[in-house]
Amino acid sequence: MSMTGSLQTPFLQNNLISMYSKCDSLRDSQLVFDGMSHRNIITFNALITAYSRSPNEAFSAFRVLSEMRTRGFRPNNSTFTSLLGACEDQLVGSQVHCQVFKIGFVEDVRVQTSLLGMYSHYGNLESAAKVFGGMVDRDSIAWNSMISACIKNDKLKQGIRMFGKMVGAGSKPTLFTYSMLLNGCGRSGDHVSGKIIHAQIIVCDLPADVPLQNALLDMYCKCGYTETAFCLFRYMEKPDMVSWNSMISGYSENGDGNMAVSLFVQLCRISYKRPNEYTLAAVISGTGDLPASYYGKPLHAQVKKLGFESSVFVGSTLIYMYFKNGEACSAQLLFSMMPAKDVITWTEMISGHTRLGDCENAIKFFNKMQAEGHKLDNFSISNALSSCADMAALRQGEMIHSQVVKAGFEEDTCVCGCLVDMYAKNGDLNAAQFVFSMVSEPDLRCWNSMLGGYSNHGKAEEAIKLFNEVLKQGLKPDQVTFVSLLSACSHCGMVEQGNMYWNHMKRNGIKHGFKHYSCMVSLLCRAGLLNEAEVLIKEAVFGEKNTTLWRILLSSCIVYRNFKLGVTAADKVLRLNVEDDATLILLSNLYAAAGRWNAVAEMRRKIKGTTSGKDPGLSWIEISQKIHEFSSGDQSHKQVDDAKNELHRLQENMKEWETREISCA
Description:
mainly alpha, two-stranded antiparallel ribbon
C-alpha cells in the first residue's frame, strides 16, 4: 500500500485528529475530519475529545455530538467521558448526566468517574455523593474526586473521613490525594490534621515528590508554623520556584518581613533561578511594616531590573508597601505610571488612602474607578464606606448604598457590616438597624458594627441585649466586641456590668488592649472610683508610659477635686512629655479648682509657650455632596464672610432669647 493510500485509512486519520489536537491545532483536526469519506464512532469521539481538551471549545464538542447523532451513531462511554470534561457549567453537565442515564451508561465505571469529577469540579457535594454511592468499583481517581468535592465545599473533616474510608477499603492513596488534603488543611488553618497527614506520608515512605513537598510547605506556612516549613525546605534536594515562593510568602504573611527578604536575596544569588512576579509580590508585601528606604525601594528597583514594571500584580503590592510606609505620594506616582490597572490596583489606592485617614481622596479614587468602567467588588465598596463613616459623609454613603443594592452585595456580610458602621457613625441608627436586620446570617464583624453603633449612641441596654444574642448564635466575641461593650458601660456609668465584661475577657483568654483599659479607666473615673482607676492603670503593661490613661484620670480628679492624685497623674504625663499642652491645660484647671492662682498663672505661661507652632485642629462638613474643610484661624475659605455673618446672627438671637428669659423671670 502506498503512503498516500495509507493516510486514507480511518485508523491513521483518527490518530491524526488526536495528534493535531494535542499540538493545539484544532483547525487541522477539523480539516482531517472534514476530508474523511468514511466516518465511524471512533472518528467522532476523536474530534469530540479534541474539542473537549481545549478551553472555550465546549460548544464545538456538542456540535460534533449533534452531527454524530444525525448520522445515526449512538454515543458510547468514551463519548460521554469526553463531553463531561468539556462541560463549562454544571447545568450542561447535568444535561449530559440525563443523557447518560437515558442511553444506559449510568453504571459504566469510566462514565461514573467522569461524572464524579464534573460534580466535584463545581463543588456539588450532594450530586457527587449520589454518583459515588452508586459506584461498585471505586478506584483512586473516584476517591480523589470525592475528597476534592468535600474540600471545595470547605468540608475538611468530611474529606479526612473519606480519606480514612479510602484507606480502609484497600484503595491506595496517591500523591495527589495527600496534596489535596494538605491544601485543605492549610486553607482552613487546621495544623493538627495537617500533621496527621504528614505523619501518614512518612509512614507510607512515599517518594520525594516536589509538588507534595510544596503542599507541605504551604500547609505549615498558612498555619503559622514557618520554622517547621523552613526545616522541610532546607532538606529539599531540588526546590522549584513554587517552593521558594511558598516560603517567601509564608514569612510575609506571618509578619516576618526580614526572613522573607533574606530568602529572596538567597534566591537571587542562585544563577539558574530567576524570581517571577509571584516571588516579587510575596517579598514586597512582607516589607510593608519595614522602612521603605531600606527594603521597599531597593525591591522596587529590582522590579524594574527584572522587567516587571508593567505587572499589575507586582504594582499592586508596591502600592500597598508605599501606603504602609505612609508614602502616599510615591503610591500615587507609581499608580499614575502603570499602563494597565485592574480592580485590585484601584482598591489598593482606595484602601491605602482610607488607612491614612485621607478619606476625601479615597472617595475620589472610588468614583474614578467606576468612571473608568471597572466592576466594583465587596472590598472596594467596604473601603469606600469606611471612608464615608470616618468623614461623616452621609449623602455619599447613601449613594454607595444604592450601588451596593444595584451590584447585588446586599447579602455580603463584609459590606453590610461597613454599611451598619457608616450609618451609625453618621448618626442614623435607624438605618443601621434596618441594614443589620436584612442580613440573614451576620458574621461577627457585622454584629460588632451594630454593637459599636449602640455604644456610640449611649444605648448600653441595647448593646448588652445584642451581645447576649451573639453568644446565643454560638459566635466567639473578640477584642472589638468588648471595646464596644465597655465603651457602652462607660457612657452610661454601669460599673458592675463593666467589671463583669472585664472579667469575662480574662476567663476566656481575650487579652486586654489599650482601648479596653481606656474604656475601663474612663468608667471608673466617671463613677468617682479614682483610686481603683489608678490601680488599673498601673496594672497595664503599657500603663506607666501611656499618657492618655493618666490624662483621663487627671480630668476626673478636677471634677472630684482630688488634688493629690491629680498632681500625681499630671506628673506621670509630663515626665514623658514636658510640652503636653492638653495636660498643662488640665493641670491649670486643677490648680484653679484648688484656688492656687499663682500655679494657674505659671501653667498658662507654659501653655502659651508650647502651643505656638502647633498644627491647628481641623473640622469639616458635607454640603451638597461637597466636603468643606475649616481650621482654627484660617480665613481662606471663599465663604468665610457668609459664615461670620451667620455666626453673628446666631449670637444676636441667643442674646435676644436670654433677654426674654430674664424678663419672664
